[in-house]
Amino acid sequence: MFRNVLVAVDGSPDADEALTQAIDLAESERTRLTLITGVANVPAISYLGFGAGASAELCAGARSWAGAVLTRARDRVPDDLPLSTILTEKPIRRALIEQIKQGQHDLIVMGSRGRGAVRSTLLGSVSHYVLNHSPIPVLIVHAGTYEQNAVAGGSWAAGPRHLAAG
C-alpha cells in the first residue's frame, strides 16, 4: 500500500511511538523510510547579552542535539529496511511539506506533540500544520494511546487518532 514513508522525529515520546509504528508498517510492507528532523531555531532574543562565541555555541548545541535525535532514531530501524535520513535547518513545517513533494512520499507519520506545549502554543502545532497542508495521507500518533491499548489488550488499529488524506 505505502512504498515511501516520511517519518518526523524530534525525540518526544509521541515521535518515538510514531517511529515504532512506521517501522512496523515498513517491515510488513517492505516500505522505504525517510527520517527527518529539524535543528531548533534559537530565538533572536537569546542572542541579547551574549557575545558572538556564545551565540555560535547555542547554534552548535542545537545542531548537535538534532543530530543525536536523528542518530537514535536511525539506530532503531532494522538494517534490512531501506532508510535515508535528513537533518534540516529550515523551519520544520516548510521542510516537511517540501520533502513530501520532493521525496515522492506517499505517507507521513509523526507524533501528535513535539517538544512542548509552550512552544506549540507560541509557534502552532507542526502536526496540525502538516495535517492541513499535506498533499498525502498523514498518520498522527499519540504515545499514550498505544500504552493504554497494550494494557487493555487493544490492537494497533485502535491506536492512531488521525489518518487523513491531503
Describe the structure.
The chain has 166 residues and is an alpha/beta fold. It has one domain: Rossmann fold (3-Layer(aba) Sandwich), CATH 3.40.50. It contains six helices and six strands; from the N terminus they run βαβαβαβααβαβ. The chain has a six-stranded mixed β-sheet, sandwiched between helices. Helix 3 runs parallel beside helix 5. It is globular. About 15% of the residues have low confidence.
Low-confidence spans: 116-123, 146-162
CATH homologous superfamily grouping: HUPs
CATH class membership: Alpha Beta
Biggest β-sheet: count, sense, barrel? 6 strands, mixed
CATH architecture assignment name: 3-Layer(aba) Sandwich
What sequence of helices (H) and strands (E) makes up the elements?
Answer: EHEHEHEHHEHE
Number of strands: 6
Global structural class: alpha/beta
Apparent shape: globular
Count structural domains.
1
Task: Estimate what percentage of residues fall within beta strands.
Answer: 15-25%
**Helix count, DSSP H or I runs of 4 or more residues:** 6
The overall pLDDT average reads: 80
Write the layout of secondary structure elements.
Blueprint: E1 4-8, H1 13-29, E2 32-38, H2 52-76, E3 83-88, H3 92-102, E4 107-111, H4 117-123, H5 126-133, E5 138-141, H6 143-152, E6 162-164
Parallel strand pairs: 1-2, 1-4, 2-3, 4-5
Antiparallel strand pairs: 5-6
